[in-house]
Write a structure and sequence with these properties.
This protein is mainly β. The protein is 8% helix and 51% strand.
Length: 184
């Protein structure tokens, strides 16, 4: 689900970016903000996609360190947060006997358990899942799935762990005629 939220982040600006009057350009602060957000990647509020509006830049805090000055920045940001029950499309990255790993947008790890794929069975010699109607799920195939469960993990990867299912109408492998090299 896409959301728009207002966030506050303390942006560290190197002292050498200040002019002789200790003034810093707004563009320098915005560039540092974007750099910090790209390092954060995600939070419990979702994956940071885009800064849509800059609300305010607060007074500088020089007590942080002798090499950096902190500026509190209020900004509007568009985030993506996976929600239980949401139907999404992902591309198969890895097929294993107990399930499939998908990539979907900023989510690099979406797990689709074999137990949550009704009517599909694993074909070990070919390393794929097959259904009686000859539908196949293998590496590189686009799959429409529903989010079964989501958990935010605050570890070194700062990522959402998503468990997917194919239980439901219209879920499973998707035929994309003529779309070679699709990267979801």
């Amino acid at each position: 689900m896409l959301r728009e939220g207002i966030f506050t982040l303390k942006v560290a600006v190197p002292v050498n970016n200040l002019d002789k009057n200790r003034v810093v350009l707004v563009s320098v602060i915005v560039n540092r903000l974007l750099k910090q957000l790209s390092n954060i990647k995600a939070s419990a509020h979702g994956y940071f996609l885009a800064v849509t509006r800059l609300h305010s830049i607060g007074q500088e805090d020089t007590n942080f360190s002798s090499q950096h000055v902190l500026f509190p920045v209020d900004f509007c940001c568009r985030t993506f947060i996976p929600m239980q029950g949401e139907v999404m499309t992902g591309i198969v990255r890895s097929v294993q006997h107990n399930g499939i790993f998908l990539k979907c947008g900023p989510m690099n790890i979406v797990y689709l358990s074999a137990q949550l794929m009704p009517d599909f069975h694993y074909v070990s010699g070919e390393n794929l899942y097959k259904r009686d109607d000859a539908s196949k799920i293998e590496n590189g195939v686009v799959v429409r799935f529903m989010i079964y469960a989501v958990r935010w993990i605050e570890d070194m990867w700062r990522d959402f762990r998503v468990l997917a299912t194919l239980k439901g109408d219209g879920l499973g492998p998707v035929t994309l005629n003529g779309l070679d090299g699709l990267d979801l």
